[in-house]
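Entry 12.
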Amino acid sequence: MKRGLTDTSPSSPWGFSFAQVAQVAKPPYRQVASLLPGGLGDLGDDKAATPLYRCVGFVASRFLPSPVPLDLSLLTNRSLTRDDESDPGGRIYLGDDGEIYHSVTRILGATSASKEALQAWKDRLGPALAAQEAGVAAERGTRAHGAAEYVLRAARVLAERHARVRHCRKVCPDGLWRGPAPLTAWALGRVAPSAPRCGISAQGYARGLVGWVVANVTAIHAIEFGVHHPLGFAGTADCLVDVGGVLTLTDFKTSARKRGPELLLDYRDQLGAYSLGLKHILGLVVPQGAIVVARRVGTPDVTLLTRQELDEAEQRYEERVWQYWDQVMPQTLLT
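Predicted 3D structure (tokens):
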């Protein structure tokens, strides 16, 4: 009689059964057992059969459904044109379908509790000097962001290329592709020294952001990606990465001074807006958020948000959107 894989007798050419494979395999491979006749069998704690472990991946790939990968191109393939000039009130995004989205930061600025303090600062410096200072800060932030973005993009390409060659990438239950975390760490360390120079004014901030990325990021999924939402807002998030093995929606900031609670609340609500956009576009619920505020010297100030805190930020941002439209619509009707 021809023996098969389900034969568990000592003289079997295989020496073990599918049920035995399921018994020693780690979750989710134990789910294989529910698909097999005869149950799990009894292997006890004997884990010495090397061929058994070599067969685990083969069996699971045949019997377990693979997670469906998320289409991250949806974050970039919607054609939204950024427009900073046509609307005197601030930045908007124009869609091919004629829709107009107001920017996330514009809505935050119009509904911020710190806008009175900002106006007082402008009045104290005067219009010309205030505009100059704001321009310098914006340019500094752009350059520091650019350095971190370069490292993330280059490291993702390098890590993905090596992971494909070694066949060590997989789709995880959240629908995102991942390779081994040490491979990502190696790629980040490899490309970080080649990050573009930012000039003296932004050098310290860029060093802080790049250093944090190299020390904490374990997988890279999306960089500088766009989100939009039916509530009428759109924006660009800095990155979607794994931090310490946890999927994290991350926003980079630069600041010469320590930020007050009102501005930190704006930063949290900004992450809430991006989280709403990810839910709308991909159906992805991110378990963690991170606000990384780079300083002129030293390590960045990092605030991690739990899923519950992101939910609260989403709710606050939705309320701010409605407050913003209550302010804007009467002005639109008057004009």
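Annotation: Residues 127-165 form the longest helix (39 residues). The CA atoms of residues 320 and 326 lie 10 Å apart.
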